[in-house]
Amino acid sequence: MKLYDYFRSSAAYRVRIALNLKGVASERASVHLRRGAQRAEDYLAMNPQGLVPALVTDSGDVLTQSLAIIEWLEESYPQPPLLPRDAPGRARVRALSLAIACDIHPLNNLRVLKYLSTELGLPQAERDTWYMHWIREGLPALEALAKPGAGRFLFGDQPTIADVCLVPQLYNARRYNVSLDDYPTLLRADENANKLDAFAAAHPDRQEQPQ
Amino acid sequence: MKLYDYFRSSAAYRVRIALNLKGVASERASVHLRRGAQRAEDYLAMNPQGLVPALVTDSGDVLTQSLAIIEWLEESYPQPPLLPRDAPGRARVRALSLAIACDIHPLNNLRVLKYLSTELGLPQAERDTWYMHWIREGLPALEALAKPGAGRFLFGDQPTIADVCLVPQLYNARRYNVSLDDYPTLLRADENANKLDAFAAAHPDRQEQPQ
User: Fold this and answer.
1) Of A111, B87, B120, B180, which sees the most CB atoms within 10 A?
2) CA B186-B95-A68 angle, 5° bins
3) What does the alpha-carbon distance between residue A10 and residue B28 come to, in Å, rounded to a whole number?
4) Do residues A159 and A16 touch, judged by C-beta distance below 8 A?
């Protein structure tokens, strides 16, 4: 199995965590996003979206989109489960994950920040305001959504896909110095997750930095 | 079951289609997004994200996030299936869905267009350019991703969650007069989907318009 990765991509970070939680080994190839390597012809032939991550399975299937890859891992390597057993619990975990993956993260993607800069001519300060705005709008809602079902983790006492999405998002929030004091549920899950080697080993600082 | 809906919300449109495909009846409540009804206290108490859709199940569970709701429907009402049986096929369908739900739609959401207007002071023409940009960036990639596995629908010959996401996205593209000529695979799936009553009956024009 081979993961096309970028150390700071939140979506790739999620898949690194999930692979670690499942104990699935994979070869890694770093796609240098800041240098545009995702736009190289051979990469686009594999993943026409020109995004990371992409996972090439042992059967040669090319899987894209972090949450689709993680659902595939869940189906292919059921232990330990990253979704609860019951349908309402699964819906809750998926909703928490999507509240991050659809409603916060896409707005702060590199390609969007580039558009703000090159097409709209926004200076760094206004791009930072944009970035923080979507985190500050998203996290209070996430805290409220998570609170009733949270335990040591975002849903219950075992890590789920929701924590897999949370940890990279809070990493981003901290990079922009967004205060997290108002989100005790999120902080507790994040802290417990990062105590696990599966999460800690997936941290951007512990990846090979592209040259 | 009760769906909190808005006729023109793409995410709600997806859930309307999925409910119809599954043959699941539901009461409807329209949440007037343009008037800010999603920010009303009682709505936020139910869905802290202040977004539509939300689905209240017969057991009283409140489900949010369109794709989480649709996965719940798939698990709770397996017939007809909206995902293939094999894990790589399921990953492919989910990736197509997420390429729309994460990489196109969130950028063109009402709350984002509002930010462009109120916070950045962008005139209508530049907001339209923004809107069309993300569609024009997303659809060629989607066409290329879908092409190898497409049949009458976006994946194979039966409608899947990918078509459920595609049809509302192409509805949006047409509202902005984005040319779709270069996407024959998408157009074929869209055309075949809209021939089905489940899709046709979910169209915004066929919903109760909020007063």
Assistant:
1) B87
2) 165
3) 36
4) no
Q: Taking CB atoms and an 8 Å limit, are B64 and A106 in contact across chains?
A: no
Classify residue A102 as left (phi > 0), alpha (psi -120 to 50) or beta: alpha
Instruction: Return phi, psi of residue A44, to 5°.
Output: -65, -30
Instruction: For residue A145, give the nearest of B49, B99, B111 by CB distance.
Output: B49
Contact (CB<8Å) B95/A65: yes
The dihedral through the CA atoms of A132, B12, B117, B35 has a sign that is negative
> Model-level pTM greater than 0.95?
yes
B51 to A37, A106, A146, B126, B153: CA distances (angstroms): 36, 16, 16, 25, 29
What letter would DSSP give residue B4? Answer: E
For residue A209, what pLDDT is reported? Answer: 78
Asked whether residue A162 carries a pLDDT value surpassing 80, the answer given is: yes
Query: What is the DSSP annotation of A94-111?
Result: HHHHHHHHTTTGGGGSHH
In angstroms, rounded to a whole number, what is the distance separating the alpha carbons of residues B25 and A192?
A: 41
How many Å is the maximal CA-CA distance in chain B?
Answer: 48
Confidence (pLDDT) at A211 = 67
The residue with tokens 């949440």 is B31
Residue A66 pLDDT class (50, 70, 90 cuts): very high
Partner B contacted by A101 (CB < 8 A): yes
Give yes or no for a cis peptide into B48 (omega within 30° of 0): no
d(C-alpha A27, C-alpha A17), whole Å: 14
Residues in chain A with CB shorter than 8 Å from the CB of B133 are: 115, 119
Q: What is the pLDDT of residues B146-189, one digit of tens each?
A: 999 999 999 999 999 999 999 999 999 999 999 999 999 999 99
Domains delineated in chain B: 2-79 (3.40.30.10), 87-198 (1.20.1050.10)
Contact B133, B69 (CB under 8 A): no
Summary count for chain B: helices (H), strands (E): 9, 4
Tokens 């686009």, located at residue: A44
Q: What is the pLDDT of residue A208?
A: 83
Omega before residue A78 within 30° of 0, cis: no
Are the beta carbons of B91 and A106 separated by less than 8 Å?
Answer: no
